[in-house]
Structure formats: structure tokens, C-alpha cells
């Protein structure tokens, strides 16, 4: 069994949550799934059957924290 297959998660019934920073006209939409404690699956809401990026919870927390502390462009 490959490492990817061993670490695969069944996301077929996942409840996805759209980012509050996604715009309302269908563009730039990022969704996350909060159902897993160790990882955060992330996908493009415009392509729900497309690839899912899985990020460790620690790295995701660091990423979100850095976004919140960044000055608005």
C-alpha cells in the first residue's frame, strides 16, 4: 500500500465550510472541512470533485494566524 493510500481520508460525506473571505460572485472560493482533528482538508469550491489539499492542523493554524495579522493590501 502506498503512503498516499494509507493516509487517504474518506471525504465523501464531509461538511465543507466556505471561507468568510471568499467573495460572493463565485470566484476565489476556498472551502475547508473541520471534521478531522489532525489535518485540514482544503478545496476549491468551484471544483468540488477536484483535488483536495490536506494540511496538518498545526500548519493550517499558523497559516490562518499569519493571514489575520497581515495588513490589508
Q: Any overview of this molecule?
A:
- The protein has about 70 residues and is of the alpha+beta class.
- The chain has 2 helices and 4 strands.
- It has helices spanning about 5, 55-70, and strands spanning about 15-20, 30-35, 40-45, 55.
- It has a 4-stranded antiparallel β-sheet.
- The longest helix is centred in the last third of the chain and has 13 residues, at about 55-70.
- It starts with a helix and ends with a helix.
- About 5% of the residues are buried.
- The model is unreliable at about 1-5 (pLDDT under 50).
Strand order of the largest sheet: 1-2-3-4
Evaluate the radius of gyration. Answer: 14 Å
Low-pLDDT stretches are 1-6
Report the sheet with the most strands, covering strand number, pairing sense and barrel closure: 4 strands, antiparallel
Let me know the average pLDDT: 79
Question: Helix/strand-derived class?
Answer: alpha+beta
Give the helix level as a range of percent: 10-25%
The count of β-strands is 4
β-strand percent reads 15-25%
List the helices and strands and how they pair.
Layout (H helix, E strand, L loop, with lengths): L2 H5 L8 E3 L11 E4 L5 E6 L8 E4 H13 L4
Antiparallel strand pairs: 1-2, 2-3, 3-4
Compact description:
The protein is built from 2 helices and 4 strands.
Quickly list its features.
disordered N terminus; 73 residues; 2 helices; 4-stranded antiparallel beta sheet; alpha+beta
Amino acid at each position: 500500500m502506498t503512503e498516499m493510500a494509507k493516509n487517504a481520508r474518506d471525504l465523501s460525506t464531509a461538511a465543507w465550510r466556505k471561507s468568510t473571505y471568499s467573495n460572493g460572485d463565485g470566484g476565489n472560493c476556498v472551502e475547508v472541512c473541520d471534521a478531522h482533528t489532525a489535518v485540514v482538508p482544503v478545496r476549491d469550491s468551484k471544483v468540488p470533485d477536484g483535488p483536495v489539499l490536506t494540511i496538518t492542523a498545526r500548519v493550517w493554524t499558523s497559516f490562518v494566524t499569519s493571514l489575520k495579522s497581515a495588513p490589508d493590501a
